[in-house]
Design a protein that fits this description.
alpha/beta, 5-stranded mixed sheet, 4 helices, about 40% helix, globular, binds zinc ion
Length: about 140
C-alpha cells in the first residue's frame, strides 16, 4: 500500500488553483494526498442525499492509502454556493455562513470518521481577483 497522510477536499474554482498549487509545492505534498475535487464538494456533506456517498468515498481512500487527516479548502465567492441558492448581504455575512456550514461538516466528519483529524483552510478572492489565504 502506498501510505499517505491527507485527503484534500477542494472546489474546482480556477481562481484558487495557483494558490493551491503553490501550497502543494511549498509543503512538498505531491504524492501525499487523495483529492475530492469538483464544484465545492464540502457542501455535499450537508446534503442528506449525498452524505453517505461522501463518507463511503473517504473510507475507501482510508482503506487504499491510510490517510488520517482531512483538509477542507474552502473559498469565498464560490459558484457552487450561488448554484445552491445562497445569497449573502455582505462579505462578513458570507464568511459567517461558510464558517457555520464548515463547522457542521467538521462535526459530521468527527462523528462518522472517529479516527480522522479535520482542518479547514479558508481562501478569499481579493479585489484584484487573486486568491489569498485568510485566517478565520
Ligand atoms: Zn467554488
Amino acid at each position: 500500500m502506498h501510505q499517505i497522510k491527507f485527503i484534500h477536499i477542494i472546489c474546482t474554482e480556477p481562481r484558487i488553483q495557483k494558490l493551491y498549487h503553490d501550497y502543494l509545492v511549498k509543503n512538498n505534498l505531491f504524492g501525499e494526498f487523495d483529492t475530492i475535487q469538483y464544484e465545492n464538494p464540502i457542501l455535499d456533506f450537508l446534503n442528506p442525499n449525498k452524505l453517505d456517498k461522501m463518507i463511503e468515498r473517504i473510507k475507501l481512500y482510508q482503506e487504499l492509502h491510510g490517510p488520517d487527516k482531512i483538509i477542507l479548502f474552502d473559498h469565498l465567492d464560490c459558484g457552487a454556493y450561488k448554484k445552491n441558492g445562497y445569497k449573502f448581504s455582505s462579505f462578513k455575512n458570507e464568511v459567517l455562513k461558510h464558517q457555520e456550514n464548515n463547522e457542521k461538516v467538521v462535526e459530521i466528519l468527527r462523528r462518522e470518521l472517529l479516527d480522522m483529524g479535520v482542518e479547514i483552510k479558508y481562501i478569499k478572492i481579493n479585489e484584484q481577483g487573486k486568491a489569498v489565504w485568510i485566517n478565520l
